[in-house]
Design a protein that fits this description.
Layout lengths: L2 H27 L13 E2 L2 E6 L15 E4 L5 H13 L3 E7 L9 H16 L4 E5 L1 H4 L6 H17 L6 E6 L11 H9 L2 E4 L21 H13 L7 E6 L1 E6 L2 E5 L7 E5 L14 E5 H7 L1 H5 L5 E3 L4 E8 L2 E7 L2 H13 L4 E5 L2 H4 L5 H11 L6 E3 L2 H37 L22
Helix pairs in contact: 5-6
Amino acid sequence: MNITRIIFLTIHLGLGVLSEYIVKDIAKECPCDPVYCRTHKYYYNREVVVVAEGKSDQSAWHWHDITMVITTEEVGKEEAKKLMCTAHQNHANFAFIREVPTITNTSDPVLLDWLEETVKKEKELYADYVALDLLKLLGQCKADSSHVQEVLALLKFMVEKFTSPSAELVCIVPYKPPCYDGDCSLTQYMAEHCAAFITSPESFITCDTNPKCIAKATMPMTSLVFGVEEFIDHGITPDKLLIGIPWHGYDYTCVNYTTDLKTGGKNQMTCYFDERNNTESCNTSLRKRMSLAEIKNSYPEQYKNAESHHYHPIYRSDYINVKKGEQQHQIWYEDHDSLLDKYMYVRSMNLRGMVIWTADDLSTKSTDDAAEWNWILHNLFSTGDIEHHSLDMAGTIAGISVGCFVLGTLLGFAFGCAVMRRRMQRRGLRLPFHRDEEETDFHDDDNTL
């Protein structure tokens, strides 16, 4: 045995032992087949992403339409790992949300610990993406140029520290670009380092867009259109925009309200909720979040009957006026028609896709959940074909495919030749192009040709 063969066998044996230990090590931490406990990275033409809070049975979700699952920070480690396994088994990417602290001092121990924990969590959960929640850091009301520079310096520091070879960053941002006094450097920097922007549906009701603290739609259509156009105007390509769409609404407690009498139509009520003491911001604690399932089950008649609820033609959203004791309430939510408007807008603008916020908001109750999932995800919003599958399996699959094709071709050719020769021998037929010993002249009516 020559020295080259000995070296080859030694390396092969060593790699085999090493890989066995690696697989065993992964298997200890992996709640499913170890093949799913690694970064996969699936790419789609159009995406339907769901945010998960870990409050419902994930098996009830329609996985054949989901392209990515993003867990909130409330989801525990073990539950997140199960979701990761299910996502990868169904050719969907997995990500988790991390709210970025508002600390702009890059040497602050709290910030450094946060970065270390984020990198550790990304490795433990085999995440394909990390979703950075930038809402509090960016600020949604007023900011000056110094704030912009501080945030920009912090983002640059974080990007340099986050050097994962596998997971990419996606950024959760307000519904419109974070530009302050004409300074859009934050937007431009994030566009270079974020694989995608996810607009938060919670960002529509802010102090700069709701100075009178009026109860209104969670996702006004006017604001959605304005925000998307602003992103595109500032150089963000449509294939980088994922629009967060709420599967929940809000029950507002009205501290005051006015009623407008409409000729030939319904009376329209304007509900005012309180401002925070000595501030210019609204007291959003006077509203209660309600999942779409809760609204459907608590107010079934108003939800289903168009005569029993109100529709805002500008916001393109629905609301219900109810009294609880002596207290007036107004509940804003998205129903079939208003959701359809949002989905069709996302599709018409050729955006990357939408983010359902959250999948648990329809799975906590049983009323029409299956129909809602079908209607929303499958029939209305086609995800398109998979452009690229798992990065580390592509070469293997391609090699196996080519090998099988070549082997099948050769075997088929050999088998065909053998069968043809056997048939010719049985029937006494001459082989092709064999010279006729009796005749040297050929004719068209020669049956042996």
